[in-house]
Amino acid sequence: MNTQRLAAAVVLSLTLVPSIQLFAQEEEPVAGEPAWVECERGRLAISRQEYGEAVLHFKNALAQARVLPEAELGLGDVYFSQGDYALAESQYLRAYDQRESFVVPDMRYDVLYRLARLYFNQKKYGKMEETLKTIVKDDEVFSGSERERVRYRDAVMKLFTNKGFDAMFLLNRIPETFSTTALSELAHYYYVSWNFTPALQYALFGIIPLVTEGMVEIRKSNLDYRFTTLDDFLREAMSNEAVRAYLDDRSFFQRLYYLALICYETIPVRDSGRRFLRLLAATDAAGEYRRLAGLQLKAPFRENRIDQAFIELP
User: Fold this and answer.
1) pLDDT the model gives residue 313
2) Taking the domain 12-124, which CATH number applies?
3) What is the pLDDT of residue 11?
């Protein structure tokens, strides 16, 4: 059950389908449309699960452009969809090696997220962790020297520990970036690895941007809105269709649930963990995480460490 939840947290998941013949491996690339058109047609073919045609388009694109990380990435997606993880990894690494040539620079992080998903599927958790941390390391939200970054993170954590989420958030607004999902995925991985100290920091910094973006969206239709408490924010967010859709898309309740569990494992912030669980249990929109929060409030339990047994907590 643990592994299934961790798999759900890894972004950009693709559905595996039965293996089919990749005809493109047997044909010479044919020059025709511009390389970017061939790439777009390859993407369209993937969406239709026409993988042989997709390979043809991507290889035609590479025959013209030679260096085209978008096409290398597309080939990796085809091989991943076929369950050929060795070839998929090779293509993703080739795309990442060419990352300076992406038309959209942030696509380099799409490659890293795909690699993290692949390593998870292979149970190469160390490589998955390393890949996600590579994403986080590039985040300019924590700009400045390493000492300044550590000082900022420590200040946020100290405020959260001593004053709680609401007081911390009033002084710290962080926009969502390419690394926000990686932060939450690392937090969840550390939780199911029972490595709770780093899990807390990653979980908190994975939630702050979602509340920040939600608050900005609320104020587009309610100029008088001011953040006061997380409870009040959620009530306002659930009545705003755009904000509710955004939070659902970002798995907000899943992230809040695991922040709650990680807090519960950390004595100085255990009360914050209980508060988050009560908030989830009182929120209909939290769905499955409302039910799980209710169970945790009645009889706290620690989710299984990967491949280990269920444990009840005092």
Assistant:
1) 52
2) 1.25.40.10
3) 37
Sign for the CA dihedral angle at 183, 7, 130, 186 comes to positive
Specify the 3-state DSSP secondary structure of 95.
helix
Compute the residue count for the chain: 314
- Residue 291, Cβ neighbours under 10 Å: how many? 12
How is the chain split into domains, by residue range? 12-124, 140-309
pTM, 2 dp: 0.84
Nearest to 138 by CA among 149, 147, 127, 123: 149
**How many CA atoms are closer than 13 Å to the CA of 271, on its beta-carbon side?**
7
Partners of 302 in beta bridges: 311
Contacts of 297 (CB under 8 A, 6+ apart): 274, 277, 278, 281
pLDDT (tens digit per residue) in 147-163 = 788 888 999 999 999 99
Question: SS3 for 311?
Answer: strand
Q: Is the pLDDT of residue 17 over 50?
A: no
